[in-house]
Task: structure prediction
Amino acid sequence: MSKVQSPTSNNEQPQAPNADTQAAQADVGLSRDFELTVTDLRKSFLSPTGERIEVLRGASFSARAGEAVAIIGSSGAGKSTLLHLLGGLEAVDHGTIVAGKFAIDRASQSALARFRNQRVGFVFQFHHLLADLTAAENVSLPLLITRVRRREATRRATEMLAEFGLDSRIAASLVGHLSGGEQQRVAVCRALITRPALVLADEPTGNLDTAIGDEIARSLVAYARDNCALVIIATHNRALAEICDRTLILRGGRLFPVESSS
Ligand SMILES: Nc1ncnc2c1ncn2[C@@H]1O[C@H](COP(=O)(O)OP(=O)(O)O)[C@@H](O)[C@H]1O
Ligand SMILES: [Mg+2]
Result:
Protein backbone atom coordinates (compact mmCIF):
# COMPACT_ATOMS: atom_id res chain seq x y z
CA MET A 1 0.00 0.00 0.00
CA SER A 2 1.37 3.38 -0.95
CA LYS A 3 2.07 5.86 1.81
CA VAL A 4 1.03 8.61 -0.53
CA GLN A 5 -1.88 10.73 0.63
CA SER A 6 -4.53 12.18 -1.60
CA PRO A 7 -4.76 15.99 -1.60
CA THR A 8 -7.95 15.82 0.44
CA SER A 9 -6.27 13.84 3.19
CA ASN A 10 -3.55 16.42 3.42
CA ASN A 11 -3.28 17.49 7.04
CA GLU A 12 -1.68 20.79 6.28
CA GLN A 13 -3.91 23.71 7.22
CA PRO A 14 -4.24 26.71 4.93
CA GLN A 15 -2.07 29.57 6.10
CA ALA A 16 -3.24 33.09 6.77
CA PRO A 17 -2.58 35.26 3.72
CA ASN A 18 0.34 37.64 4.12
CA ALA A 19 3.04 39.05 1.86
CA ASP A 20 5.15 35.89 2.16
CA THR A 21 2.44 33.43 1.27
CA GLN A 22 1.21 35.65 -1.55
CA ALA A 23 4.71 35.70 -3.04
CA ALA A 24 4.93 31.94 -2.63
CA GLN A 25 1.50 31.52 -4.20
CA ALA A 26 2.74 33.39 -7.25
CA ASP A 27 5.55 30.81 -7.43
CA VAL A 28 3.18 27.89 -7.76
CA GLY A 29 0.98 29.68 -10.29
CA LEU A 30 0.76 28.26 -13.79
CA SER A 31 0.14 30.47 -16.80
CA ARG A 32 -2.68 29.45 -19.10
CA ASP A 33 -0.38 27.89 -21.69
CA PHE A 34 2.24 26.51 -19.31
CA GLU A 35 4.63 23.76 -20.27
CA LEU A 36 5.75 20.82 -18.16
CA THR A 37 9.35 19.84 -18.73
CA VAL A 38 10.78 16.70 -17.21
CA THR A 39 14.48 16.08 -17.67
CA ASP A 40 16.59 13.03 -16.84
CA LEU A 41 14.42 11.84 -14.00
CA ARG A 42 15.85 9.09 -11.84
CA LYS A 43 14.28 7.33 -8.91
CA SER A 44 15.22 4.14 -7.12
CA PHE A 45 13.85 2.29 -4.12
CA LEU A 46 15.38 -0.11 -1.66
CA SER A 47 13.61 -3.46 -1.73
CA PRO A 48 12.82 -5.26 1.56
CA THR A 49 15.84 -7.50 0.86
CA GLY A 50 18.10 -4.45 0.61
CA GLU A 51 18.40 -4.55 -3.15
CA ARG A 52 18.22 -1.22 -5.02
CA ILE A 53 15.44 -1.11 -7.63
CA GLU A 54 16.09 1.54 -10.26
CA VAL A 55 12.60 2.44 -11.42
CA LEU A 56 13.26 5.61 -13.41
CA ARG A 57 16.60 5.76 -15.21
CA GLY A 58 16.64 9.07 -17.03
CA ALA A 59 13.00 9.67 -18.04
CA SER A 60 12.46 12.88 -20.02
CA PHE A 61 9.45 14.43 -21.76
CA SER A 62 7.60 17.68 -22.13
CA ALA A 63 3.94 18.49 -22.52
CA ARG A 64 1.77 21.58 -22.80
CA ALA A 65 -1.41 22.81 -21.18
CA GLY A 66 -4.43 21.68 -23.19
CA GLU A 67 -2.99 18.24 -23.94
CA ALA A 68 -4.04 14.85 -22.64
CA VAL A 69 -1.02 12.55 -22.53
CA ALA A 70 -1.18 8.83 -21.81
CA ILE A 71 1.72 7.09 -20.10
CA ILE A 72 1.61 3.37 -20.76
CA GLY A 73 3.91 0.61 -19.59
CA SER A 74 3.61 -2.82 -18.03
CA SER A 75 2.83 -3.32 -14.37
CA GLY A 76 5.86 -2.31 -12.31
CA ALA A 77 7.30 -0.14 -15.11
CA GLY A 78 7.18 2.92 -12.84
CA LYS A 79 4.03 4.76 -13.99
CA SER A 80 2.77 5.45 -10.48
CA THR A 81 6.24 6.46 -9.35
CA LEU A 82 6.45 8.97 -12.23
CA LEU A 83 3.06 10.50 -11.36
CA HIS A 84 4.01 10.77 -7.69
CA LEU A 85 7.15 12.69 -8.65
CA LEU A 86 5.21 14.94 -11.06
CA GLY A 87 2.73 15.79 -8.31
CA GLY A 88 5.47 16.47 -5.79
CA LEU A 89 4.28 13.61 -3.59
CA GLU A 90 7.73 12.05 -3.57
CA ALA A 91 11.22 13.50 -4.02
CA VAL A 92 13.32 12.84 -7.12
CA ASP A 93 16.78 11.26 -6.80
CA HIS A 94 18.03 13.17 -9.82
CA GLY A 95 16.65 15.31 -12.64
CA THR A 96 14.29 18.27 -12.94
CA ILE A 97 10.53 18.76 -13.18
CA VAL A 98 9.40 22.25 -14.09
CA ALA A 99 5.74 23.21 -14.50
CA GLY A 100 5.54 26.74 -15.89
CA LYS A 101 7.96 28.61 -13.65
CA PHE A 102 7.56 26.25 -10.73
CA ALA A 103 10.46 23.83 -10.15
CA ILE A 104 8.70 20.91 -8.48
CA ASP A 105 11.93 19.02 -7.77
CA ARG A 106 13.39 21.93 -5.78
CA ALA A 107 10.29 23.30 -4.04
CA SER A 108 9.86 23.46 -0.27
CA GLN A 109 7.30 21.18 1.38
CA SER A 110 4.96 24.11 2.01
CA ALA A 111 5.17 25.34 -1.60
CA LEU A 112 4.51 21.79 -2.76
CA ALA A 113 1.48 21.52 -0.49
CA ARG A 114 0.08 24.73 -1.99
CA PHE A 115 0.89 23.55 -5.49
CA ARG A 116 -0.97 20.29 -4.88
CA ASN A 117 -3.96 21.94 -3.23
CA GLN A 118 -4.35 24.73 -5.75
CA ARG A 119 -3.02 23.46 -9.06
CA VAL A 120 -3.07 19.67 -9.14
CA GLY A 121 -5.94 17.20 -9.29
CA PHE A 122 -5.17 13.56 -8.51
CA VAL A 123 -7.27 10.59 -9.55
CA PHE A 124 -6.12 7.30 -8.06
CA GLN A 125 -6.93 3.78 -9.14
CA PHE A 126 -8.46 2.96 -5.79
CA HIS A 127 -10.17 6.33 -5.62
CA HIS A 128 -9.26 7.08 -1.94
CA LEU A 129 -12.68 8.52 -1.24
CA LEU A 130 -13.97 8.76 2.31
CA ALA A 131 -16.67 6.08 2.49
CA ASP A 132 -18.47 7.64 5.47
CA LEU A 133 -19.06 10.95 3.70
CA THR A 134 -21.58 11.59 0.96
CA ALA A 135 -20.52 12.01 -2.66
CA ALA A 136 -21.10 15.78 -2.45
CA GLU A 137 -19.09 16.02 0.78
CA ASN A 138 -16.17 14.14 -0.80
CA VAL A 139 -16.18 16.43 -3.83
CA SER A 140 -16.47 19.53 -1.58
CA LEU A 141 -13.37 18.72 0.46
CA PRO A 142 -10.74 20.31 -1.82
CA LEU A 143 -12.84 23.51 -1.87
CA LEU A 144 -13.13 23.57 1.92
CA ILE A 145 -9.33 23.25 2.11
CA THR A 146 -9.06 26.41 -0.01
CA ARG A 147 -11.56 28.03 2.38
CA VAL A 148 -14.64 28.15 0.18
CA ARG A 149 -17.71 28.25 2.47
CA ARG A 150 -19.47 24.94 3.03
CA ARG A 151 -22.78 25.94 1.45
CA GLU A 152 -21.05 27.23 -1.70
CA ALA A 153 -18.76 24.18 -1.80
CA THR A 154 -21.76 21.82 -1.60
CA ARG A 155 -23.55 23.74 -4.35
CA ARG A 156 -20.52 23.54 -6.68
CA ALA A 157 -19.92 19.89 -5.84
CA THR A 158 -23.54 18.97 -6.57
CA GLU A 159 -23.39 20.87 -9.85
CA MET A 160 -20.21 19.11 -10.91
CA LEU A 161 -21.60 15.69 -10.00
CA ALA A 162 -24.64 16.47 -12.15
CA GLU A 163 -22.31 17.31 -15.07
CA PHE A 164 -20.91 13.81 -14.65
CA GLY A 165 -24.37 12.26 -14.70
CA LEU A 166 -24.68 11.81 -10.94
CA ASP A 167 -27.98 13.28 -9.75
CA SER A 168 -28.85 14.87 -6.41
CA ARG A 169 -29.89 11.53 -4.92
CA ILE A 170 -26.41 10.14 -5.61
CA ALA A 171 -24.79 13.38 -4.43
CA ALA A 172 -26.50 12.87 -1.07
CA SER A 173 -25.60 9.15 -0.83
CA LEU A 174 -22.73 7.83 1.24
CA VAL A 175 -19.88 6.96 -1.11
CA GLY A 176 -19.64 3.50 0.43
CA HIS A 177 -23.11 2.76 -0.95
CA LEU A 178 -22.29 3.66 -4.57
CA SER A 179 -21.18 1.34 -7.39
CA GLY A 180 -17.54 1.20 -8.50
CA GLY A 181 -18.25 3.28 -11.59
CA GLU A 182 -20.15 5.90 -9.60
CA GLN A 183 -17.38 6.06 -7.01
CA GLN A 184 -14.77 6.62 -9.70
CA ARG A 185 -16.85 9.41 -11.24
CA VAL A 186 -17.05 11.00 -7.78
CA ALA A 187 -13.25 10.71 -7.53
CA VAL A 188 -12.86 12.45 -10.90
CA CYS A 189 -15.21 15.23 -9.76
CA ARG A 190 -13.19 15.63 -6.58
CA ALA A 191 -9.99 15.92 -8.63
CA LEU A 192 -11.47 18.53 -10.98
CA ILE A 193 -13.59 20.64 -8.62
CA THR A 194 -10.83 23.22 -8.03
CA ARG A 195 -10.27 23.45 -11.83
CA PRO A 196 -6.63 22.31 -11.52
CA ALA A 197 -4.16 23.19 -14.28
CA LEU A 198 -2.48 19.79 -13.96
CA VAL A 199 -4.42 16.53 -13.59
CA LEU A 200 -2.59 13.32 -12.74
CA ALA A 201 -4.70 10.22 -13.17
CA ASP A 202 -3.20 6.88 -12.11
CA GLU A 203 -5.06 3.98 -13.76
CA PRO A 204 -8.29 5.94 -13.32
CA THR A 205 -10.28 3.20 -15.00
CA GLY A 206 -8.27 0.30 -13.58
CA ASN A 207 -11.00 -1.78 -12.02
CA LEU A 208 -13.99 -0.66 -14.10
CA ASP A 209 -15.70 -2.20 -17.09
CA THR A 210 -14.72 -0.87 -20.51
CA ALA A 211 -17.72 1.35 -21.18
CA ILE A 212 -17.44 3.25 -17.89
CA GLY A 213 -13.65 3.35 -18.18
CA ASP A 214 -13.96 4.81 -21.65
CA GLU A 215 -16.40 7.45 -20.49
CA ILE A 216 -14.13 8.49 -17.61
CA ALA A 217 -11.08 8.73 -19.87
CA ARG A 218 -13.06 10.82 -22.39
CA SER A 219 -14.22 13.18 -19.66
CA LEU A 220 -10.60 13.73 -18.58
CA VAL A 221 -9.52 14.43 -22.16
CA ALA A 222 -12.43 16.85 -22.58
CA TYR A 223 -11.42 18.57 -19.34
CA ALA A 224 -7.90 19.17 -20.75
CA ARG A 225 -9.34 20.81 -23.88
CA ASP A 226 -12.07 22.83 -22.23
CA ASN A 227 -9.91 24.19 -19.42
CA CYS A 228 -6.54 24.37 -21.15
CA ALA A 229 -5.23 21.99 -18.51
CA LEU A 230 -2.55 19.33 -18.82
CA VAL A 231 -3.96 15.88 -18.13
CA ILE A 232 -1.60 12.93 -17.70
CA ILE A 233 -3.16 9.49 -17.52
CA ALA A 234 -1.13 6.44 -16.53
CA THR A 235 -2.68 3.25 -17.83
CA HIS A 236 -1.70 -0.22 -18.93
CA ASN A 237 -4.60 -0.14 -21.38
CA ARG A 238 -3.50 0.83 -24.90
CA ALA A 239 -7.09 1.27 -26.13
CA LEU A 240 -7.65 3.85 -23.44
CA ALA A 241 -4.42 5.59 -24.35
CA GLU A 242 -5.75 6.03 -27.90
CA ILE A 243 -8.37 8.42 -26.52
CA CYS A 244 -5.56 10.76 -25.42
CA ASP A 245 -3.78 13.22 -27.74
CA ARG A 246 -0.54 11.29 -27.54
CA THR A 247 1.05 8.37 -25.80
CA LEU A 248 4.41 7.77 -24.20
CA ILE A 249 5.63 4.37 -23.11
CA LEU A 250 7.69 3.85 -19.98
CA ARG A 251 10.19 1.10 -20.63
CA GLY A 252 13.48 0.38 -18.88
CA GLY A 253 12.94 3.49 -16.77
CA ARG A 254 12.78 5.84 -19.76
CA LEU A 255 9.99 7.37 -21.82
CA PHE A 256 9.49 6.91 -25.56
CA PRO A 257 6.80 8.25 -27.92
CA VAL A 258 4.28 5.75 -29.28
CA GLU A 259 2.80 6.21 -32.73
CA SER A 260 -0.97 6.19 -32.86
CA SER A 261 -2.38 3.03 -34.47
CA SER A 262 -5.26 4.93 -36.11
N1 LIG B 1 7.86 3.07 -1.93
C1 LIG B 1 8.41 2.03 -2.59
N2 LIG B 1 9.33 1.25 -1.99
C2 LIG B 1 9.91 0.22 -2.65
N3 LIG B 1 9.63 -0.11 -3.92
C3 LIG B 1 8.73 0.63 -4.57
C4 LIG B 1 8.06 1.74 -3.95
N4 LIG B 1 7.21 2.28 -4.86
C5 LIG B 1 7.33 1.55 -5.98
N5 LIG B 1 8.25 0.57 -5.81
C6 LIG B 1 8.66 -0.40 -6.84
O1 LIG B 1 8.95 0.32 -8.01
C7 LIG B 1 8.53 -0.41 -9.16
C8 LIG B 1 7.60 0.45 -9.99
O2 LIG B 1 6.37 0.61 -9.29
P1 LIG B 1 5.19 1.50 -9.83
O3 LIG B 1 5.66 2.88 -10.05
O4 LIG B 1 4.07 1.32 -8.87
O5 LIG B 1 4.85 0.81 -11.24
P2 LIG B 1 3.54 0.83 -12.11
O6 LIG B 1 2.66 1.91 -11.60
O7 LIG B 1 4.00 1.07 -13.53
O8 LIG B 1 2.90 -0.51 -11.98
C9 LIG B 1 7.90 -1.68 -8.65
O9 LIG B 1 8.88 -2.69 -8.71
C10 LIG B 1 7.55 -1.35 -7.24
O10 LIG B 1 7.54 -2.49 -6.43
MG1 LIG C 1 0.74 1.93 -10.82
